[in-house]
Amino acid sequence: MGYLLEVRDLKMYFGGVHAVDGISFEVGQGEIIGIIGPNGSGKTTLINAVTGVYNPTAGTILFDGMDITSKKMENLVSLGICRTFQNLKLHKALTVLQNVIVGEHLANDSNFFDAVFRTKRFRQNEKRARELAMTELEKVGLAGNASDFVSELPYGMQKKLEIARALVMKPKLLILDEPTAGMNSVEAKEQIDLVKKLNQETGLSVILIEHNMKLLMNSVNRVLAIDAGKEIARGLPSEVQNNSRVISAYLGED
Amino acid sequence: MKKAALKDFFSKKSTRIFLLAILFAGLTVAPFVTNTLTKRIISTIFIYSLLSMGNMVIGGFTGMLNLGHAAFWGVGAYITAILMTGYNVPFSAAFLAAGIGTALVGLVVSIPCLRLSTDFLSLITIAFSYIFLAVVRNWMSVTKGPQGIPGISCINFFGVDFSSANAVYFVLFAVAVVSFIVISNITKSKFGLAMQAVRDDELGARSAGIKPAQVKILSFVIGTFFAGLAGALYAAYIGYIGPNTFTFDTSTTIFQMCILGGLGSIPGAVVGTVFFVVMPETIRTLAVYRVGVGGVIMLLLMLFRPQGIMGSRAFATKDGIQERIKNKLIARKVANVQKHV
Predict the structure, then answer these.
(1) Which residue in A224, B105, B150, B320 has its CB near the most CB atoms, within 10 A?
(2) Are A180 and A242 in a shared domain?
(3) Are B219 and B58 in contact (CB under 8 A)?
(4) Is A127 on the interface with B (CB under 8 A)?
(5) What is the pTM of this model?
């Protein structure tokens, strides 16, 4: 059976620092994969290398059977890989709705001529973009804040907004980099439930990077645990949770 | 309460259309009821608003600090002057050539800008404005050096002569209005949104499939295209051009117009233009101190309304001086209370 995403022996070196050192994993259609690891273990670097923020030092990445190893992030969107960021990458001087419409950039097929002369196609596209954006905002529960500026939103809502911006691109694979960072346990639970719901309703494949192991245990299919750029455990959440190497990575060794 | 009502009034679409209609009507009758000086000032506003709107696209929407816009204006003006006086090209063709030629120059200048962040990019644009001046001042055979090019014939579209003062006024008016509509439409489309997305967070924009390099080049080409058109109009309107018009000082004035009007607002660019063209005329008696007045106004603006007159409130920083004064007063009150307890 073919996987949606296959990462083979990925390495990302910055000079002498081996931030990601030979990690392999795969994501099946409709699966939620959790990636866990203590701070500085290379989770975000791994995802940055996969999504083309960095150009990996070595290894291969296959998406739907296609080699995407050195493709840049902006070229992955049309293939169906979308992501959010650990440190919010939102557009602060735009409204919440506009931030989501930014995600429609590629789907909107108005050309320059349409924009200057406000053709029928332009007006239809703009209307459609607004409607689709509102639908996504409703999904994440931000419809009531559509005309607020991003800088006026609390942190948790900004995290949700990033998810809405990614969802509007209709991804096949959604990569969430610590979607619950900075949230309290109730908000974090809600956020993970939202992801779970999206996965169940639309069959969206998800990679969920999370620092807090407990949150993932009931919601993901499989877990990959990494530390110091290397895989230390993989398998079902319950297996990984009790793995001695994972416990020692989180709690330190005696 | 009153403030909110006022805000409501101005954000209503009908109010805006009404105000625009009054403005339009006023500008239409203006040449018939005012004197030559006023007409000249308004005409200057039309030309400068092309510059400030173009620079607004580059600086206010895409966030590239362009401090060489006057040089692009100069490129357009010199293209027009050289074509019209040296090769007898009709104005209509020279007008188009100035726009396209300047946009090409803008394209070339924007390429090194792609790899640079804002500060270094503005250094490149400053360098460009000095290179432009050096070329124009020394390339005697083409640009006639420091004496400039005189005897440029008047604005003339497809054989129709617009040599009377009122005719010129209406040509400039028409070009300014059309440019305003075109630039507004672009900035309100997905292209404008992409520009703002790149300005606010390049990585976030890339994650939405936007290619920052393309967006930056596009905005530079749009901005410099209109600078080129402004150059053509200016050359034919004044009839003489010399290097001293297109200096770095003029570039900073154009940028000041954008900042005063409010970054990210095309109507703001026009408001800023009106201010910086009219202000020096009204305080002529202050002679050289006029420049200082402009500076003081910019300073006050940055302190009390950092987002500019029409800028989005999202640009207003939270630690603006008003907030800081308020915080300080609160802190003092708290300290007083604590002293008494």
Answers:
(1) A224
(2) yes
(3) yes
(4) no
(5) 0.89
User: Which two structure tokens, joined as six digits, stand for A193?
Assistant: 């439930």
Does B319 contact chain A (CB < 8 Å)? Answer: no
Q: Would the pLDDT of B198 be above 70? A: yes
Q: Which chain B residue lies closest to A175 (C-alpha atoms)?
A: B207
Q: Which of residues 278-317 of B touch A (CB under 8 A)?
A: 312-315
How is the beta sheet containing A58-63 ordered, strand by strand? A17-27, A5-14, A58-63, A66-67
Does B190 sit within 8 Å of A93, measured CB to CB? no
Q: What CATH number is associated with residue A42?
A: 3.40.50.300
pLDDT digits (tens, 9 = 90+) for B19-29: 888 988 888 88
Chain B interface includes A123 (CB < 8 A): no
Q: Which residues contact B272 (CB under 8 A, 6 or more apart)?
A: B52, B256, B257, B258, B259, B260, B261, B262, B308, B309
B-chain residues within 8 Å CB-CB of A108? 190
The domain made up of B39-340 is a member of CATH 1.25.40:
no
Cβ contact B195:B188 at 8 Å: no
Reported as a pLDDT band with limits 50, 70 and 90, residue A249 is: confident
In the structure, how many helices (H) and strands (E) does chain B have? 15, 2
Chain A hits for B194, Cβ within 8 Å: 102, 105
Mean pLDDT in chain B?
A: 86
Mark whether A134 and A246 lie in a shared domain. no
Q: What is the pLDDT of residues A138-162, one digit of tens each?
A: 988 898 988 888 888 888 889 999 9
A106 contact residues in B (CB cutoff 8 A) = 208-209
Q: Is residue A85 part of a domain?
A: no
Top residue of B190, B198, B319 to mutate, by most chain A CBs within 10 Å, is B190
